Amino acid sequence: GTVNVRGSRDGRANTALFNRPTGLAFDDSRMPPILYISDVNNHRIRGLDLATVETWQVAGIGTSAEIRDGIGSIARFNSPELMAMDDSYGRKTLYIAETSNKAIRRMIKATISPTATPISEVAKPSSAPTARGGQWTADKTYVESPIPFEDFASYGGVGGAFDSDSEFLYVSTLKNEIWQTSPMHGTYRLYAGQSSSGREDGPRSSARFNKPEGLAMKDKSSLYVADTYNHKIRMIDTISESVDTVAGIGGSYGRIDGPALVARF
């Protein structure tokens, strides 16, 4: 990229142009490795070859659009933001949180297919958003848009963290909630947080967040949450199902380093 210059241009990394690059995902199954980048305001997924340092367009057309599945430039996005990479099936699957179209997309080998039948409402709680996508295809060859979330906002970000042991994708929304989804089965449920904001730790069902965004999974049992407006890093233990603050001071922002519970964000 070029400092303070927005645009959409491929080529060598130091001359390429982006417009609000946000999400990153690393694919080390290819040689050379590839870094995927969500170019939010260009409504595209870009690729960066880490050996040649060249960028290229992976999917999307550069303008916002309603959801369309397909290959490369056939696919359409509207503000793709944070991403999560899953390699639990021997191949890389990229999950993309698309905020303005309020959906989770997936990309396998840069391919997107037409959606299949509507998602089943099995195990769908009454408060869940309306499903209007498609089910996963049996051979997992395609990128689809199977799980819409009406609670996605058209600003800020959402994040995903894949737990490859349990096949769950965790998704944060700007309505203060963390959702647990099963892409293989097309089901999802509210996992932690409540619609009202707060900063309480404790059991996941009663803990509260304030605009959680980025997520990261560690050791299959620790889900870290960037609790943006609380200026804290939280951790959900998926075994004990409890939420704890691991860094930052709730309600107090700053840029102080030091011990985790003294540091400020």
Question: Could you describe the largest sheet, including whether it forms a barrel?
Answer: 5 strands, antiparallel
Helical segment count: 0
Q: Note the beta-strand portion.
A: 35-45%
- What's the end-to-end separation, in Å? 26 Å
The order of strands across the largest sheet is 1-5-4-3-2
The structural class is mainly beta
Mean pLDDT: 77
Q: How are helices and strands ordered from N to C?
A: EEEEEEEEEEEEEEEEEE
Instruction: Indicate the overall shape.
Output: globular
Number of strands: 18
Q: What is the C-alpha radius of gyration, as a whole number of Å?
A: 18 Å
Query: Level of helix content?
Result: under 10%
Indicate the low-confidence ranges by residue numbers. Answer: 110-144, 151-157
State the main characteristics.
single chain, 265 residues, mainly beta, 5-stranded antiparallel β-sheet, globular
3D architecture notes:
This protein is mainly beta. Helices cover 0% and strands 37% of the residues. The protein has a 5-stranded antiparallel β-sheet, with no helix packed on it. Strands 14-18-17-16-15 form a 5-stranded antiparallel β-sheet, with no helix packed on it. Mean pLDDT is 77; it is low at 110-144 and 151-157.
Please give the structural blueprint.
Layout: E1 11-12, E2 21-27, E3 34-39, E4 44-49, E5 54-59, E6 80-86, E7 93-98, E8 103-107, E9 147-148, E10 160-163, E11 168-173, E12 177-182, E13 187-193, E14 202-203, E15 212-218, E16 222-227, E17 232-237, E18 242-247
Antiparallel strand pairs: 1-5, 2-3, 3-4, 4-5, 6-7, 7-8, 8-9, 10-11, 11-12, 12-13, 14-18, 15-16, 16-17, 17-18
